Amino acid sequence: MVVGWLEEERQPPKAAPEASGQPFSGITLPTPKLGKGLEKNNRYLTLISTYAPTLVASDAEKDSFYEALNTAVRAVPHADKLAILGDFNARVGNSHHLWQRVMGVHGVGKCNDNGLRLLSFCAEHDLVITNTLFQLRTMHKTTWMHPRSKRWHMLDYVLVRQLDRKDVKITRVMRGAQGWTDHRMVRTRLEIHIKKHARKNAHAGKLNTRALEDSGKREELQTALASRLTHALEDLTADTELLTTAWEAVASTLNTTARQVLGTTTKRNRDWFDEQREDIHTLLREQHSAHAAVLRSPSPANRARLAEVRSQAQREIRKMKNEWWTRLATEIQGYADKGNQQQFYCALKAAYGPRRGSVLSVTGDITDEVQRRIGLASSSFGRLASRVFLNKDLTIKTKVAVYKAICLSILLYASEAWTPYRRHIRMLEQFHTRCLQRILGLKWWHKVPHAEIRRRADIEPLETLLLQRQLRWAGHVIRMPGNRLPRHMLYGELTKGKRTVGGQHKRFKDNLKANLKKCGIPPQGLETSAADRNRWRQECAAGAARFTASFNQQYEERRRRRHLPTSNTSTSSNHICEECGRTCKSRIGLTSHQRTHAVNRT
Fold first, then answer.
1. Which of 74, 353, 503, 551 stands the most exposed, by the fewest C-beta atoms within 10 Å?
2. Which residues, in sequence order, are CB contacts of 554 under 8 Å at separation 6+?
3. Residue 495: is its pLDDT beyond 90?
4. What is the helix (H) or strand (E) element at residue 21, kind and residue range?
């Protein structure tokens, strides 16, 4: 049994390597032995203690913290146990249906921006928040009280791998513990279970039922079964006591024959090495022959030959790997562009096996759906990180192609019908930028602007990609016959009902009209332009290009204004109350202040 203690002292712990100034420290402990007579245990438990930036910290500070934490987590071997403890200054909420494998059903409160970052990090690395797994009273889960609202929140967490979820027996707040901190102490109890390493070929594997699609294989299986079952049933009698034995013989014959004829499945996911095994083996045989020649006679000629063959093999293997991933990305992107959902998800599942589905809200709010999309895209990015995005043998062009075909397709699934607000666009853009930074190998201290990141990756802003999808879908619906349901939904209006007082919720029509104006397309000519498919496609492409240019120009202008020297003159001199002479910092502040005088007069 291992007991882990967490105490926040509000003092920055030791900084991680290559992350100067980041509160971060870790320790590695050996796990218990497997027991007498069992194999030697070489696995460890790594404990990482963290202190994350607060909610008001800049995005650069948050990015640098999670970059350092991401590097530390990836350095831990996958077979080892991992526990991350600390004050993450994040509220993850209680949306278990959006983050089913990341958090339990016993969360507290609502999710904020820092909480979304933490949840995305956990989804990428297959971690689970143990604080939300156990049904406890709220006072035994919350760790910090807000000084003004006096409400308690959960900010301190213990994270473990999802595979080690069963090792966590309890994560609970200790209310009576005293310490020089305004946070409560969190206690986690672990019972570590170490499994023996499974031997290779320990399981026979599943039958390759896909081979039955071949008529030749089917005939071969039928012939073999007819012959063998005839011999197996010759000695069968009507004695009921022998029926069990007879059935076991028949079942064994069926299983053995099917395995011999059909074979077993070797691997669930597609892999570049398996599909080009013969070509790679040819290169490796040449390299092995040259190495054997050096061992027999280490002459300068043989050594030069070995170096030449080895370099050629490395170049060819890198080329094969790039071409294979490029072909796969092109295939998946082609299915997505054509709207062939069946083939798209078959190819996507063959690549790594994603999860799909949408979250519908009664009010039409897409906040939950955006969070779920970010979670699934983070999981897909994490599963492909070591194979693709962090693979130094692949080019940036190949990595971006795979990212667009897989991660962005999952992120923007069913986004054609979204009605996003600015907060949703900001959440998606932040995820998009973080992924591109990881693909390009950029760190926080490089200080590369977002526009330059997109230029290096040769990719558009995510708002442009979302806008293109929605305009393309709108044109498709307009060209539908009048009896189709999507067209009825686009053109239909409610005959009954009453709108509430105040600001109204944004409708899909409002969002479509705003997108047309952003692209410079007159809304009045929408139906005329969309009626011609080729013309509409050209107008959408030209409008997306204009929007991207305007987007980058506005971004550069905002960045230029941020770097201008601040003026010494006060900007609030014009916002002075005429009745009491109070100076306000903004016009809206002055308006709110003047309302107090109006209330006092009445």
1. 503
2. none
3. no
4. none
